[in-house]
Amino acid sequence: MEGSLYKRRHTRRPTYPLAHAARQKPRRIPLVLRFAKGAIHNIILIPVLLHSLFTVLIVYLDRNVAGSLGVPATVIPSLSIVVGLMLVFRNSTSYDRFWSGRNCLTTIGTSVRNLARGFLVNAHRSKKEGGGLTDAEKKDTEKIIRVLIAIMYAVKHNLRAEFNIPPVPLSTSSSSEEAPIETSKAEYFGLLPDGLMGYEDQGLSLPLQLTVLVESYIRRGFDRGWFNAPQSSGLSAQINSLVDAYGKMETIRSTPIPVAHLIHQKQVLALFNCILPFATVDDFGWYAVPIVAIVSFTLYGIEGIGVQLEDPFGHDKNDIKMDGIIEDTRQEVMVLLEEWKMAADGHAERMAGGMFDF
C-alpha cells in the first residue's frame, strides 16, 4: 500500500519548465499574412475605411464638380513631423508600461520561489530535537505554500478588476446566496485557507491580506527555531519586494495615458489624414485613394499598437501571458511541496537524489 502511494505521487506529468508561458507550436501562417489573433486590424478598420471614402469624395469632386481642390504638397512634411513625434511618444510609453509590468510579474514569481524554497528547506527539526514535524506543523507549512501560490492568482485577478473573495468564510460561501463564488475563480480558491474572509468590500486587496499570513508564518518559524534572525529578515525582504512589485503593477493599471494627450493625438491623426487627399489629388488622381488608405493604415496601426500595450494585464493576445506564467510557477512550487511532503513523511531514503534530506 505504501509503495503504491509513493508510486502515485511520483508519476511524472508530461510538462517542462515554462511549458505554459512558452509558445506551444510554430507559426503556420507568416506574420505578414496574419489578420487575426494578435493583429490590430479590427481597431483601425473603421478609421481607414472612413478616410478612404473621404478621399474618394475629394477625388470625385476634384475631377467632376468643383475643379481643382488640391493644396501644395509642401504642407505634408511639416504635419508629418508632429504626427511622427506623437506616435513615437505614445508607443514608447505604452511599451515601457508593458515591459515594466512583465518585470514586476517576474519579481513576484521570483519572490514566491525564494519564499517557498526557504520555507521548505528550513521547516524541519534536527535529530537532536527529536526529528520530524508534528501534523500541525506540516499542515501549517503546506497551507502557507499554497497561500504563496494563491498570491499570484490574486494579483492577476485584482489587476483585471475581478474582485472575488466574499465577506464570508470560504468554507460556507459556496452555499450562500448573498456572496456566491464564481466558478471561473475556482483555479485558486482551493489554495486558500478554509474560513478565509475577504475584506475587498472594505478596501483591502486580497494579495496584501495573504502576505500578512505569510509574514505571520515567518514569525512562527522564528519562534519554532526554524529561522534565525538574518533568515527571517531576508524572508521578510522577499515579501516587501513582492508587495512593491504589486504596487507598481497597480500603478500601471490605474494610471492611464492622460486624456489630453489622447484627444490631441486622435485629432492630429484625423487632421493629417484628412489633408492628405487634398495634397495628393492633383498629382495622383484616383491613385490618391490607395495612397491615403495605406498611410492611414500605417499611422492608425501604430497608434492601435499603443492602445493594446497600454494596459498589459488583460486577456488579449498582445497582453502579458499572466495565465501561463503563473501556472508554470504553480507547477514548480507544487512539485517542491510534494517532494517536501515525501521527505517529511520519511520517504527520503526511497527517492533517488531527493531534494530534501532531513
From TrEMBL:
Protein name from the UniProt record: Uncharacterized protein
Q: Which domain of life is it from?
A: Eukaryota
